[in-house]
Structures are given as structure tokens and as C-alpha cells.
Amino acid sequence: MLNLRPLPWLAIAANLAVMALAYPQLTLAQESNSWMKDWAVQPGFALDVAVEGLNLPTSIAFVPEPGPDPKDPAFYVAELQGAVKVVTNDGSTLTFADGFFNLVISEGEFGSFAETGLAGICLAPEQGYVFVTYAYRHEDGSIRNSVGRFDTTPQTFDVRPESFQEFRWIFLRDESGESHQIGSCQVYENHLFVGVGDGSQPEKSIDLESSLGKVLRMTFEGLPPPDNPHFSDGVRTNPSNYIWARGFRNPFGLREAGGRLFVADNGTSVDRFLELEIDGNYLWMGEIGSFMAVSDLLIPEGRGVSQFDFYHSGLGFFPDEFNNHFFLVQSGDPQSRRNPPAILTFEFGFSERRLLSTANTVMEYRGEDIQVIVSATFGPDGLYIVPLFPSNDGVSRILRMTYDPSNAHPYPIYPADQPIQIMRESGCLECHSYGEPNLNATAPPLDPNQLIPRLNARLNSSEYEATLRAVDELSREPFASYREARAQLLQLEGMDRIRLWLEQRLREPRFDDPGARMPQPNLTEAEIKILIDFLLPAVDTSQSDPEPIDDPELSLADRVRALLPNPMGIRHLASFLIGGAIIGWLSLGALFLAVRFIRRADRFTGNRANDKDS
Predict the structure, then answer these.
(1) Which pTM value belongs to this model?
(2) In total, how many domains does the chain have?
(3) CB atoms within 10 A of CB 188
(4) What single string gives the DSSP state of each residue in 400-424?
């Protein structure tokens, strides 16, 4: 059965590899820039093609100071199925290395989304080393992680390696897992850092005897440095000697910025971005609550965060307003148009050690075909974006985003004030408020820090599930037409459930509520998507806690649940544990208290109060 949670990009890559190889070509009459309509960017930004003709690219690494010759390397590209390509100064694409690890995917595994592959690539310029991370098929048939090192010419590198060696010994104790393999690598302070997924074994993430669910630190020879926090015996096959931080699920993104390390980690229905601390424990043990407890930024729609990069003023090709901004890839959910691939941008204060802005979308996929973004890396002249699959014309491209208002991309993302205008014109702000107080408001605020926990409490209550069962008994419209949507709602969890509920509520306010008095907003599908993206943004957990919720429809248990910090920072861990105990103690009486409050509100849907959750 397919997982309805947005899968990481590796989860569907191998399943579609054969499709990619046989991707249909369009006729010669089709315009060469047909790919452009698949992407939307913020106004003023332009997109062009940096390189094309690759096969399932996953990551790129730029040579900091390329040599002067037209055939000197400009950057390297890792491809999922095991090849490393090099793009030279004149734009040529050559094969740097191929076939250096055993990649075997049987026909049956395609159907189950199994994959192994080349994930990350990074450079050590002074030594001329090209590092790669990958999962391979071991001789015993298992999937295992590894790091490889190619040796080339220092500083300028080369189009062919002089030698190659693997550091397999680090990972021999652990089997890897589908979609939860090794991820990015980063050279920092003359050491190599790598992020390793939990191998679908969450209990291993905090285990000091396992390499899974960790960020590892090693020398360029693949040996454990003595100053690692858990270094004990120096044995190269002992994972604890390499551990720098632990408690991760899928740390696909790993990057140095401002002399510090940052990680992007895939959750289940929630993803996170955080600053990495030496000997940090980031608490993934299989439960989303502990996962959410430690983060700088939570991305609730869970699109599968991947690689990222950092923009600073020294780069000089974006407006000053983007200084000190991270650009974070959300790989997207190919099985759902509700969570398309996108790139978020947000400002980080290094002296404040926290986010200084909300996360905004700078680029988003709007095409009809399956697509995933896997990487975004700053080069010498722009942000290089790596989609995994070919465009609708059958050509695989790495895109370059620059700021050029005179040649701006013809498909912009909506302006920041458009959602407010839509809410105003549709009448939402007559009953609700957003941002500023509304003295005439008769319904709860729509601010995300209140809306999300309120809906989370309501949609996960036993009373709501009973309501859906009752509505399913109705044969008249619109209830009959939305029976499938209600069934799908019960199959989802977390932000996926909230997002689908809001989508259906904006489309038909009565889809789950015969007594809803919310007027029909008559929104277009495009307007519905804009409002969903606006009302359910990425949540910044470095800021102050959300205000308490005052909703007379919620049961006492739901009120307690909503009052817990959502999302939680590490400072709330004790409160998280205590709050869980309180909720457990009250759970036996929750149903009776809920009925009492619902009856006071004229049953569950009989008045305007139930309309307030929209």
C-alpha cells in the first residue's frame, strides 16, 4: 500500500527510472522553452537552462576557482543510478566516473518503490577530492551505505579521477533502508560530514552503536577524529567513534553557513530545519512529537525537505533583501498536487541564533507531470536548481535562477497581498480576523499559529470522527458527492489531514457539516490553493508560543492539547511530557465533557460556532 505522506525524492526515483529512460519526445514543432510554464517564481526572477541531457540528477558541487581552460571542470553532478558527470567551462557535459558501486534493482522492487543510489557530492578543493555518498547492493543482498573519494588535481580538479577509494567500513554494522539511506555530505574545517537516514529503523537513531539516523564526522581518509564527542577506541568500524550528532530521521540536507552547520530533516507529516550542535540529540525515535520538539523551523505540510544553500551579500546577484537567507528545497509529493515541489526562503540571524522572517515560497512547480526538486545550490551566477525528472518535452535540465526584472520569468508566484485580497472579497474577513484585530469578528482568528492547533485538536477528536460517520449516512447533496473526500480525510494524519479539510471546506463549507452557516465563498481552484498555502505556511518555532485558543466547541481534552506549545521547541520538552500525561489522565472523561460542551453550543453543527473553524 502506498504511503500517503509525501515521500522523499529517493522513494519514487527508482520506481520511475525506467519511465525516465523511455520518456516520450514531443514533435519538433513544439517550442524549446515549453518547460517554462511548469515553474512559477517570485516576480523579478528569471529562469534559464544551465545544462541539459542528464539522467536523474540528484546533487551538484561547484569548483570554487575553476581553471582557465574551456575544458576545465566548472561543477560536478551526481546521478541517482551511479554516474558522476562533470560540466566544463565551455558547457560540455562529460562522464567523470560510472559503475563504481553495485546498483541492482529487480523488476519486483520497482513496484515496491525500492531504490539504491547516488545521493550526495561535495568537494575538498585544496586536496582535489571529490566525495560522493550512496547506497549500494551488498554481496549478501542487503542495502548498505557508503562514502567514496575520487582523487583529482588540487584546486582546479579534472574531468577524470586519478584514483578512487571507498569508506564502506564505517557502515558495515547497519543495513540501510528504502528512502532512508545516506544523504548529503559537507566539507567543513578539514573534515567530512555526512547525513545518514535511519534505515527505516527509528530505534537506531539515538543508538550510539549504530551509524543510522546520524550526522557523522570523519577525516578525509575515512577515519574517526579523536575530538569527536563519542570517540572511544579509534576502531574504524565502530560507528560511535564517528558520531557528531544523532536522533535524525532523514537528514537529506546538510550545509555549512556562516561558520556553522545546518540540517534539513524529513519527518512523517512534518519536516524540520535546524542548526547542528556538537553532540546534539534531535530525538527522532519513531514518534512525531519528539521529532517536533527540537527544531528552528517546522514545515507542517511535510513536502520532504532536501538540500539547501545560503545566500550572503558577497554573492551579489540577488537583491539585498535576500541577504542572510537560506534557500531550502521541498522535494514535493509526486502523488499529490496538494504539495508540489518548491523552494522556500527565510532569513536567519546568526547573532540571534534564530529565524528572523517567516518562510516564503520563491519557486514552485506548476506542471502536470510527475516532478521532484532534489537540490538548490548557489553557483557563481545564480541559484542552480536540480529537478530529478525530465520536463514534459522529455529533456532533463538543471535550471538557473537569477534576478533580472527586465527578463523576468513569465509565470510569477502570486503577490504577498493576494491572499488577503481573496479573503476580503470572498467575505472571510467579515467574520474572521487575520493579523489585525477585527472588532466585528464573530469567528476565531485565521492566524496560522491559532488556526493550525485548533484544527488539529478538532479533526483528531473522536467526536469529529463520529460526526463524519453520521454525515456519511446522508444521501442528499452535497454530502453524497463528498463521501470519498471524507473517507480520504480519515486516512490522513497531521498537516495532511488539516490541509485536505481546509481545501474541502473552501470548496464546499457543508461537505462534513449539514449545519454549517459559512457562506459559499465561490472560489476558483487557483484561489483555493493560494489560501491554503497562505493559511498553512511553514511554522517558525524559534519565535514566541502561540496564543491560547478560545473555542467553545472544543472539549476539555482538546483545549489542553491545543494549549501545549505547537510546534514545540526544545525548551518545551518537559512541558511536552507533562502535557502528554495530563491528556492521558483526562482521556477517559473527554467524551462526556465533549458532549456537554457540544450540547451547550446547540449540538455539534447547529449554530454559527461550528462555522468558526473555517
Answers:
(1) 0.68
(2) 2
(3) 16
(4) EEEE-GGG--SSBPPPTTHHHHHHH
